[in-house]
Each structure stands twice: as structure tokens, then as C-alpha cells.
Amino acid sequence: NPGSSFRGRMRFGPAIALLHSVPRAPRTPGAALTASILGLADVSYRSVLYDFSQPDQLEEWERIDDVIMGGVSSSRLVVDGSSALFEGRLRSDGGGFCGQRMRLLAEPLDLSAADGVFVDCEALSVGAEPSKRVWKMAIRTKQDRGEVVYQAAFKPPTGGRATVNLPFDAFRLVRGPRLVPGVPPLSAAQTNETYQISLVVSKFEVSETGAALPGFEEGLFAMRLHELGTFSTRPPPFSRSMPRALSEREQAKAAPPLLRLLRPLLGLVFGEPTRRRRAATRLLEARGSSRLQRARLGWAWRVAAGGPLVAARKTAALGLKDAGGFALSLPVRLLFKLIVWSSKMVKTIIRALTLLAEERKEGAPAANAASA
């Protein structure tokens, strides 16, 4: 049973468990089918950027889950023999997406000689049907973590390995899950400085409203990845080599000085463990649990994981961390409240001055008539 096997592995222990219960499609001309959108069928040349049969190439990817916006979804990219598994659990509370992306590159990747990107993959029968989720690929054309991101939705093959081709003009500029209206599709010329490619599974459609997919179902998911690269109907003019990915230290060093200074505080107050605890607390509150019930539940989990002594130590550490985070964030909270209060006061004053000006304007003709 692939579903039960997968649920067991999603405990994310130190050992990597694999989907041996799901058969792997052989690499034959019959199995390497080509699925294409926009009617593009003549694909003569492919250039592989990532071969997921090479374990070291997985180190050049990082996850990007909805925990960054307060969600509780989680995913990982792990080795599975001659391929990789993008697997995890989607939850709609507070977010509703999971993703894996290339680490930012030290130098841009020039893809302008290609017609689009491809992914050799297979959606596995784990959790809900793959059609109950939205699968996307994203291309980032800036080195920073800004919003110059183009997305295209695709339907991963089921029941066997296949190649999905996504022409560049299928990608549209997005802000979060929403399309930016009036912006032309991505062109090949714009990909001459590509810094990142991402794979995302989400509850949100690629649309101007960013609406959820009708019939979306949360739960476990898995997609087997074999290769990712570019395709073209003509031979490439040059051989392409992948620039190296920035290390975590290099990415941190490239951050603005203020962010580097505040990083320890931000990590303490807004780090992923803290955000996940807050999201879990909100879920338990929504189910009617009291503060005491939540404390008992947390204690029981910690005791089951390591015994009373370990539970006591972790509970004390969490208490100190929460107290320290609250104390350190208090000036920021007060400043934020001051800014909000000042903004409201300014709006109130502007509104009062506007009404006073209108009253004076309306009263001027009456005064002139009385004097006449």
C-alpha cells in the first residue's frame, strides 16, 4: 500500500526511507513519453540542467514551504535510487503550498537559446489524486529574493514516467499566487539571466484572483523527478554549464547589513520552529482546546519522545525562548503600534480638515448673499 508506506516515512527521521512500493518506470523510448502544452510537439534537442540520479545535485536545491507565511505544510527532496522524490504533506491552514527550488546561483544562467524548460517526472498515487492539486514551475530572473517570478502550471504524468515541456511563453509574471494583469508572457530573451527554477505544488491556481483549485484536497503528495532542463527545436549554439550555487554563508553575507544585524532576533521571533508552533496553537485553539489542554498535550509529546527529564529540559528551554523573544520583540511591537496609531491620527486629521474646507466652501455663497 503506497499510501501507508508513505505516511510512515513522513516522520522525517534521520534515515531516508524510500518509495520502494511504487515501481519505477524503465528508461526506454516507449516510457519516455513527451507531454506538451500549447501544441508544441517537435522537440529535437534537450539540455539537462539537473540529473536527479546524482545525489550531489540535490544539495543544490532548498525547500520553500508555506511556513514562511504561517502555514504548516512541509516537504523534502530525497534520493530514491536513480531518481529523487519531491514529497511532503499539503495543509490548507495558513498557507497551502510546498516547493523545492534551486539555490540562488553565483552567476546567471543563460537559457535564451532554448524554447522552454522540461521536467522528466511522474506523479505518484500517494494521498489525493494529483489532479486535486496545482503543480507549477517558476523561473526567477533576478538574483535577489524579489518578486520578478514567472510561473506556469502543468499536469504531471501519472501511471508512468514522462517528459513535460513548458514553453517560455507559458510562464506569466506573478505576485504570490496571483497573475500580474497586463504583463506579457516570459520571452526567451528575458531568460538570459536566470537565477532560479522552482517546482511547486499548491492549492492556488495561476490566475489573477489567486483562487483555490475547485476540489482541492490536502494531504500527502509525491512526485518522482528524473531530469530538469531546457528544450529547443534547433541545436544550441554553445554548450551550457551550470554556474555554482551560492552557499548558505554566501547568501547570508549578501543580505543587507540591517538584515544581517537583525537576523538573530528575527530567527528567534519569526524562525520556522516558532512559526510552526504558533500555527499549531491556532489550529488547536480553533478546535476549542484550552491553554491548559495544549500545555498537557505538549508535555505528553515531549515525554513520549525522550522521557520526563528531556521533556522538562525542553519545556524550560521553550519557556525561556518565548520569554526572550517577547522581550526582544517588545520595542518592535510598540513601534509598530505607534506607526499604526500615527497613521490613523493623520487620516483623522486629514478627514477633519477636508470636511472643514467643504463647510467653508458651502458657507461662502450664503455669506455673500447675506452681505448683499
Describe the protein.
- There is one protein chain.
- The radius of gyration is 26 Å and the shape is globular.
- The protein has helices at 2-9, 248-253, 257-270, 272-286, 291-306, 308-371; strands at 33-36, 45-51, 61-63, 74-80, 83-90, 97-102, 116-123, 134-140, 149-154, 162-167, 172-175, 178-179, 196-202, 219-232.
- Helix 3 runs parallel beside helix 4.
- A hairpin with an 8-residue loop joins strand 8 (134-140) and strand 9 (149-154).
- The strands form two sheets. Strands 1, 2, 4, 5, 7, 10 and 14 form a seven-stranded mixed β-sheet that branches. A seven-stranded antiparallel β-sheet has the order 3-6-13-8-9-11-12, with no helix packed on it.
- The chain is 33% helix and 24% strand.
- With 372 residues, it is of the alpha+beta class.
Q: What descriptors fit this protein?
A:
372 residues; alpha+beta; 7-stranded mixed β-sheet; 7-stranded antiparallel β-sheet; 6 helices; 14 strands; globular; disordered N terminus
